[in-house]
Amino acid sequence: MSALAGKTALVTGASHGSGRAAALALAKAGAQVIVHDGRGVSEAETVVREIRAIGSRSGAIAMDLTTREGPYRLAQQVRAIVGYRLDILVASTGMSMSEVAGDPSVDDFDHRIALNVRAPFFLVQQLLPIMCMRSNVTFLLPPARQAAGGCHGVDTAIGGAVQTLVRHFASALGGRGIRVNGVAEGFVPTEKPASEGRTREGDASDVGSVVTFLASDAARWVTGEVVRVNDRTAG
Questions:
Q1: CB 66: neighbour CB atoms within 10 A?
Q2: Where are the domains of the chain?
Q3: Nearest to 93 by CA among 185, 189, 178
Q4: pLDDT tens by residue, 22-48
Q5: 8-229 maps to which CATH number?
Q6: What pairing do the DSSP bridges indicate for beta strands 199-201 and 187-189?
Q7: Which has the closest alpha carbon to 135: 58, 78, 214, 210?
Q8: DSSP string, 62-81
Q9: What is the C-alpha separation between 65 and 139, in angstroms, rounded?
Q10: Rg of the chain over CA atoms, in angstroms?
């Protein structure tokens, strides 16, 4: 029997990167998955088709989470779809500032904080009424780029804030039987010389595997932790 059979999941930012990997991994484990994308429904529908091909149920929601109303409206739509039970929430971060050329403007900074800190906080708040005993929340942190020497100050601030959210919600929701953890995608060594940047980004599928583990009963005693996905044996 699949580890997550009968479970329902929402994955934000699920049309690309680690969010997509998490959505597909949860579906392979038997969960039905709501795929969220902040830019439009077309990319999310591609992931929905992949999930349905696996044999799991899926649907797509497009919602801009950088607006004040975004988390509330997304929660409303999710509740309209799933009714009174959501078992798994995976909150994926948006694009890293390390991927943006030049220094961030104030608007860039506000956009990233709204998407990756404010939105997950209020999304958890709004979905709590339909998250019951043995539900769980997983926050996906921005990729750790320190090893590549390209860590951006905004990424660092967001990573620290999200880790604080993990600890806060794990403590606040533990009495309800809701577990809260984080997953940080790291950089792993490659065969390149150091002068060429001897690191590469971890495989997003590895993040999906960890998310699936944290959502399962095998992790029923794990809460308040941030799991870092690295391959320290490679190289």
A1: 17
A2: 8-229
A3: 185
A4: 999 999 999 999 999 998 888 899 999
A5: 3.40.50.720
A6: antiparallel
A7: 214
A8: E--TTSSSHHHHHHHHHHHH
A9: 15
A10: 17
CA angle, 7 then 64 then 224, to 5°:
50
**What burial class does residue 12 get, using C-beta atoms within 10 Å of its C-beta: 0-12 exposed, 13-18 middle, 19+ buried?**
buried
Overall residue count recorded for the chain in this entry: 235
Q: How far apart are CA 205 and CA 224, in angstroms?
A: 22
The answer to whether 66 and 39 are in contact (CB under 8 A) is no
- As a whole number of angstroms, the distance between CA 64 and CA 73 comes to 9
Expressed in percent and rounded to 5, the helix, strand and coil fractions of the chain are 50, 20, 35
CA-wise closest residue to 188 among 235, 156, 141, 150? 235
Backbone angles phi, psi at 230, to 5 degrees: -135, 160
pLDDT tens digits along 77-114: 999 999 999 999 999 876 554 455 457 788 888 999 99
Give which of 35, 24, 33, 25 is closest to 6, Cα–Cα: 33
CB 35 within 8 A of CB 15: yes
Strand locations in the chain, DSSP E?
8-11, 32-37, 58-62, 88-92, 136-141, 179-185, 187-189, 199-201, 226-229
pTM of the model: 0.87
Q: How many CB atoms lie within 10 A of CB 215?
A: 28
Cα–Cα dist 148/30, whole Å: 36
